[in-house]
Protein backbone atom coordinates (compact mmCIF):
# COMPACT_ATOMS: atom_id res chain seq x y z
CA UNK A 1 0.00 0.00 0.00
CA UNK A 2 1.89 3.05 -1.20
CA UNK A 3 -0.81 5.70 -0.67
CA UNK A 4 -3.57 5.88 1.89
CA UNK A 5 -6.09 8.60 2.60
CA UNK A 6 -9.38 8.76 4.42
CA UNK A 7 -12.41 8.09 2.24
CA UNK A 8 -15.98 9.01 3.11
CA UNK A 9 -17.40 8.85 6.63
CA UNK A 10 -20.67 7.00 7.24
CA UNK A 11 -23.03 8.34 9.90
CA UNK A 12 -26.13 6.74 11.38
CA UNK A 13 -29.02 9.19 11.66
CA UNK A 14 -32.58 9.06 12.96
CA UNK A 15 -34.28 11.18 10.29
CA UNK A 16 -32.70 11.11 6.83
CA UNK A 17 -34.61 14.08 5.39
CA UNK A 18 -33.70 16.29 8.36
CA UNK A 19 -30.03 15.25 8.21
CA UNK A 20 -29.79 15.75 4.45
CA UNK A 21 -31.16 19.28 4.84
CA UNK A 22 -28.75 20.08 7.69
CA UNK A 23 -25.61 18.77 5.97
CA UNK A 24 -26.52 20.43 2.67
CA UNK A 25 -27.11 23.81 4.34
CA UNK A 26 -24.03 23.74 6.57
CA UNK A 27 -21.52 22.16 4.17
CA UNK A 28 -23.09 22.99 0.81
CA UNK A 29 -23.02 19.28 -0.07
CA UNK A 30 -24.54 17.89 -3.22
CA UNK A 31 -26.57 14.69 -3.20
CA UNK A 32 -24.70 12.08 -5.24
CA UNK A 33 -27.28 9.37 -4.61
CA UNK A 34 -30.10 8.59 -2.23
CA UNK A 35 -32.87 6.22 -1.35
CA UNK A 36 -35.61 7.90 0.66
CA UNK A 37 -38.37 5.29 0.42
CA UNK A 38 -38.71 1.92 2.10
CA UNK A 39 -36.82 0.57 5.09
CA UNK A 40 -33.27 1.12 3.80
CA UNK A 41 -32.93 4.89 3.59
CA UNK A 42 -29.57 6.49 2.82
CA UNK A 43 -27.86 9.39 1.07
CA UNK A 44 -24.40 9.98 -0.41
CA UNK A 45 -23.22 13.58 0.03
CA UNK A 46 -20.15 15.43 -1.19
CA UNK A 47 -18.67 18.31 -3.13
CA UNK A 48 -16.68 18.81 -6.29
CA UNK A 49 -17.22 15.21 -7.36
CA UNK A 50 -15.86 13.78 -4.10
CA UNK A 51 -18.02 11.66 -1.79
CA UNK A 52 -17.49 12.87 1.79
CA UNK A 53 -20.36 11.72 3.99
CA UNK A 54 -22.89 8.92 3.78
CA UNK A 55 -26.02 9.07 5.91
CA UNK A 56 -27.82 5.90 6.96
CA UNK A 57 -31.23 6.11 8.63
CA UNK A 58 -30.92 3.19 11.02
CA UNK A 59 -30.66 4.69 14.49
CA UNK A 60 -32.79 5.75 17.40
CA UNK A 61 -31.96 8.17 20.19
CA UNK A 62 -28.98 10.52 20.16
CA UNK A 63 -25.24 10.24 19.56
CA UNK A 64 -23.65 8.56 22.57
CA UNK A 65 -20.51 10.52 23.47
CA UNK A 66 -19.78 8.21 26.41
CA UNK A 67 -19.33 5.08 24.30
CA UNK A 68 -16.33 4.01 22.21
CA UNK A 69 -16.53 5.09 18.59
CA UNK A 70 -16.48 8.32 16.67
CA UNK A 71 -15.35 11.29 18.78
CA UNK A 72 -16.06 14.02 16.23
CA UNK A 73 -15.91 14.68 12.52
CA UNK A 74 -13.81 17.64 11.36
CA UNK A 75 -13.79 19.56 8.09
CA UNK A 76 -11.00 21.94 7.09
CA UNK A 77 -11.80 25.09 5.12
CA UNK A 78 -9.27 27.45 3.52
CA UNK A 79 -9.54 30.41 5.89
CA UNK A 80 -11.23 31.93 8.92
CA UNK A 81 -13.73 33.80 6.74
CA UNK A 82 -15.12 30.43 5.58
CA UNK A 83 -15.46 29.35 9.22
CA UNK A 84 -17.30 32.60 10.00
CA UNK A 85 -19.72 32.00 7.12
CA UNK A 86 -20.38 28.47 8.41
CA UNK A 87 -20.93 29.80 11.93
CA UNK A 88 -23.54 32.24 10.60
CA UNK A 89 -25.41 29.39 8.90
CA UNK A 90 -25.24 27.30 12.08
CA UNK A 91 -26.69 30.15 14.12
CA UNK A 92 -29.49 30.65 11.56
CA UNK A 93 -30.33 26.94 11.84
CA UNK A 94 -30.31 27.07 15.63
CA UNK A 95 -27.58 24.41 15.79
CA UNK A 96 -26.05 23.71 19.19
CA UNK A 97 -22.64 25.41 19.37
CA UNK A 98 -20.27 23.87 21.90
CA UNK A 99 -18.35 27.12 22.49
CA UNK A 100 -19.48 30.67 21.89
CA UNK A 101 -18.10 31.08 18.39
CA UNK A 102 -14.72 30.38 16.86
CA UNK A 103 -11.95 29.20 19.18
CA UNK A 104 -8.33 28.11 18.67
CA UNK A 105 -7.31 24.45 18.84
CA UNK A 106 -5.14 25.26 21.86
CA UNK A 107 -3.53 28.08 23.76
CA UNK A 108 -1.24 29.90 21.33
CA UNK A 109 -2.46 27.91 18.31
CA UNK A 110 -3.39 29.76 15.16
CA UNK A 111 -5.64 27.00 13.82
CA UNK A 112 -9.17 26.72 15.13
CA UNK A 113 -12.80 26.80 14.31
CA UNK A 114 -16.37 26.29 15.38
CA UNK A 115 -17.56 23.18 17.24
CA UNK A 116 -21.19 22.08 17.05
CA UNK A 117 -23.57 19.14 16.86
CA UNK A 118 -25.84 17.93 14.11
CA UNK A 119 -29.56 17.20 14.74
CA UNK A 120 -28.67 13.76 16.18
CA UNK A 121 -25.99 15.13 18.50
CA UNK A 122 -23.04 14.02 16.35
CA UNK A 123 -20.10 16.28 17.22
CA UNK A 124 -18.70 18.26 14.29
CA UNK A 125 -16.03 20.85 13.66
CA UNK A 126 -15.28 23.30 10.84
CA UNK A 127 -11.81 24.80 11.15
CA UNK A 128 -9.20 26.88 9.37
CA UNK A 129 -5.45 26.22 9.58
CA UNK A 130 -4.72 29.81 10.66
CA UNK A 131 -6.33 32.97 12.01
CA UNK A 132 -8.13 31.70 15.13
CA UNK A 133 -5.54 32.87 17.66
CA UNK A 134 -7.45 36.02 18.64
CA UNK A 135 -9.77 34.17 21.03
CA UNK A 136 -8.66 32.33 24.18
CA UNK A 137 -8.60 28.53 24.10
CA UNK A 138 -11.57 27.13 26.06
CA UNK A 139 -9.67 24.01 27.22
CA UNK A 140 -6.42 24.50 29.11
CA UNK A 141 -3.63 21.93 28.85
CA UNK A 142 -5.23 19.85 26.10
CA UNK A 143 -6.45 20.31 22.51
CA UNK A 144 -9.81 22.06 22.29
CA UNK A 145 -11.12 19.50 19.80
CA UNK A 146 -10.34 16.61 22.15
CA UNK A 147 -12.53 17.49 25.09
CA UNK A 148 -15.96 18.75 24.15
From TrEMBL:
Keywords tagged on the record: Lyase
VOC domain mapped to chain residues: 5-129
Keyword Secreted in annotation: no
Top-level taxon in the UniProt lineage: Bacteria
The UniProt record lists the keyword Cytoplasm: no
SUPFAM superfamilies, A to Z: Glyoxalase/Bleomycin resistance protein/Dihydroxybiphenyl dioxygenase
Signal peptide residues on this chain, from the entry's feature table: none
GO molecular function: lyase activity
UniProt protein name: Lactoylglutathione lyase
Organism encoding this protein: Nonomuraea glycinis
